[in-house]
TrEMBL record:
FAD binds at E45, A46, V239. This is FAD-dependent oxidoreductase. Pfam families: Amino_oxidase. Keywords: Oxidoreductase. One of its GO terms (molecular function) is oxidoreductase activity. It comes from Agromyces luteolus.
Length: 453
């Protein structure tokens, strides 16, 4: 990959075949596919690093995944990339104990007991997964069924199960974790889609979400893909304006530079599209989706907890500022813990005392001695965490993003066909959109040959 990080005096750099907006997993994958087949590619990345919503950074005396982390063999695209580059996985530790909140107080027990409590309610909630999504990588094969369900929220469907209060509270907090946001804002179809991707098994889905990490960190995989392309990579290139027609795409970045290409792939998160003006504007349904954003607006924080040394798993209630905890790395007389919460604005991720107050409800007396986090929701180049769709997104907006607009295409985990919201979906959509451009290119070549013959 050739890096172009110097100050850029030119207002009109050389034209390329394809501009890629964003150097996360979708952008890097698309760049590799296109350059390896001979197309010239320039990636415009607003930040000064690759990886996007994955970020393997220093913190708490080690390296920590501040964003996307876990991968699984049920995720075919990321698994293939790991095999391609000879990168393994490392397991998160099996929890020795579970803590949860019930009837107004803390409870502790065997993690299997907690899983067992979640089993039947989850089976009932997701029983239709394979009926509505028989082919999860083609989510609209049963369009009528999806349409009939896509207006409902996860909260609606949990309420309809009419569970005993304790089971209902546990199921609500479990899905609040999965949404990383409010279950009142999250589409029920997204819950079904997730579970359909693990053959209808919610427990395997949970395993896929929080069990196996990339050995050497997500940055290692992102770097391996980046090293496999000779695309130009421009850091500090925040796209602000985009004009597209049937012939070309013109993209202007914050410093006034305009880049021109025959095609462009935007891999910007849905929320980050609010900052890009487009001419012509996107169709109304897509603009509405950009305006509404995703439901994943929560927090992920790392902290060191003193007084606990055994790996544990813990659930608070759905509206706590942090409602899920996983003890990840034993650390002397403490343990380094990941916490998730549904609303990034409800917790200051740098405030150890605030975090201690929440975890202290479940593990009284434990002390938080250090914290590390990134606020993805306030980050202008993310604006969301993992993309959990709102009601209607799947049926009304996603087909438009898949179709693209003229020479502009959309890739990224917000627009994936399969594992939407995951690294896998980002890679999948990068492959799909690169292939479509390659096919168009090849067709154009054939047409030119036919004209000149
Ligand atoms: C806290 C958290 C935890 C997660 N946990 C997991 C997990 O355990 N497992 C999993 O599989 N997934 C997880 N995810 C989701 C996963 O990280 C993302 O879905 C995936 O990395 C998205 O890749 P992408 O290429 O689609 O988008 P991104 O990674 O967001 O890449 C888009 C790129 O576009 C750039 N950009 C934005 N705006 C502009 C602009 N105007 N101009 C130029 N560049 C711009 C951004 O800087 C970014 O680099 C998590 C995400 C978060 C935030």
């Amino acid at each position: 990959m050739s890096l172009n990080t110097q100050a850029r005096p030119t207002s009109r750099p050389a034209e390329v075949d394809v501009l890629i907006l964003g150097a996360g997993f979708a952008g890097l994958t698309a760049a590799r596919e296109l350059t390896q087949r001979g197309l010239s590619v320039r990636i415009l990345e607003a930040r000064d690093r690759i990886g996007g919503r994955t970020w393997y950074a220093d913190g708490l005396g080690r390296r920590l995944e501040l964003g996307g982390t876990w991968v699984h063999w049920t995720q075919p695209y990321v698994w293939a990339e790991l095999a391609r580059y000879g990168i393994g996985t490392v397991p998160s530790p099996a929890p020795a104990v579970a803590h949860w909140w019930e009837d107004g107080g803390p409870r502790s027990g065997d993690p299997l007991e907690l899983l067992a409590r979640l089993d039947e309610p989850n089976r009932r909630l997701t029983a239709e997964a394979r009926t509505v999504f028989p082919e999860p990588f083609h989510p609209l094969t049963q369009a009528a069924l999806v349409e009939a369900t896509d207006h409902e929220t996860v909260a609606d469907r949990i309420a309809a199960l009419d569970l005993p209060p304790g089971d209902r509270a546990l199921l609500e907090t479990f899905w609040t974790l999965n949404v990383n946001g409010s279950i009142d804002a999250a589409a029920y179809t997204q819950a079904l889609r997730w579970v359909a991707l693990t053959n209808g098994d919610w427990a395997i889905n949970f395993e896929a979400c929080a069990s196996y990490k990339v050995d050497g960190g997500t940055a290692r995989l992102a770097r391996a893909i980046a090293d496999d392309t000779d695309a130009e990579l421009w850091f500090g290139a925040a796209v602000e304006f985009l004009v597209h027609d049937d012939d070309a795409v013109r993209v202007t970045t914050a410093d006034g530079t305009t880049h021109v290409a025959r095609h462009a792939i935007s891999t910007l998160p849905l929320a980050a599209l609010t900052r890009v003006r487009m001419t012509p504007e996107l169709p109304q349904a897509m603009r509405d989706a950009v305006h509404e954003g995703q439901a994943g607006l929560g927090a992920k924080v790392w902290f060191r907890l003193e007084g606990v040394t055994e790996p544990f798993v813990a659930f608070g209630e759905k509206d706590w500022p942090l409602n899920f905890f996983q003890g990840e790395y034993p650390d002397g007389d403490g343990i380094i813990v990941i916490g998730f919460g549904p609303d990034a604005s409800a917790i200051d991720p740098t405030d150890a005392a605030a975090i201690e107050r929440v975890i202290g409800r479940l593990i009284p007396g434990a002390r938080v001695t250090a914290v590390r986090a990134h606020d993805w929701v306030s980050d202008p180049f993310a604006g969301e965490t993992w993309p959990m769709h709102r009601p209607g997104y799947l049926t009304h907006a996603l087909p438009g993003f898949h179709a693209g607009a003229g020479r502009l295409r959309f890739a990224g985990s917000d627009y994936a066909h399969g594992w939407g919201g995951f690294i896998d979906g980002a890679i999948e959509s990068g492959l799909v959109e690169a292939r479509r451009i390659l096919t168009e290119h090849a067709d154009a070549g054939v047409r030119l040959l036919a004209v000149s013959a």
